[in-house]
């Protein structure tokens, strides 16, 4: 499935696209490993300042291909199923370690592992036609791909329990209201809004974004004093950077700063 995950880089933005539109981008074959490798390549590139993950066609991603699951179950193939679960774990671990901002551009339904993938990104911009749901128990399965880690941190434990246990799909309006989507934009302007947001982030100072992302990632598991100390160290690193000099100089000169990542 060589074309099941597409990647491109332009103007500092890596765009990774799940590409099985005829199956709403459900995962099959080596698609999980290809997604991991695409994320790794983008994260490792000095030319990439922002990563966007989206889906081809009318869906973001609907998780595991049920036809594949049915075949594995029929053959009692626990070994292959376990390997698929491990592949999903690799994707999320790599995604959570990425230093650049990662945007989930949710263009349509995001269900099961597709929903969990979106939740593991730094934030989500969604089309008004999008929806999202932790639908694992509809086929008798448990959430994976880090869903039980990401979801409570976004919506709180009670709301997370309701979403996981009902397995319901949430439309874009409600998802925006409860904190699953940070932005919901009209479907007609979705692509333009994603591009604009990615370009906006790509123009910002990479060190400042990278260190802020690190602080946010640890803040929920740290006390105030630990975060104050982390902020001090990271603030000093930014202060010594060429980008801080450029930012302050540009502000004083009333021009747009050009940050070069130094």
UniProtKB/TrEMBL annotation:
Domain of life: Bacteria
Keyword Hydrolase: no
Transmembrane segments: none
Pfam families listed in its UniProt record: ECH_1
Keyword list, A-Z: Isomerase, Lyase
UniProt similarity note: Belongs to the enoyl-CoA hydratase/isomerase family.
Listed name of the protein: 2-(1,2-epoxy-1,2-dihydrophenyl)acetyl-CoA isomerase
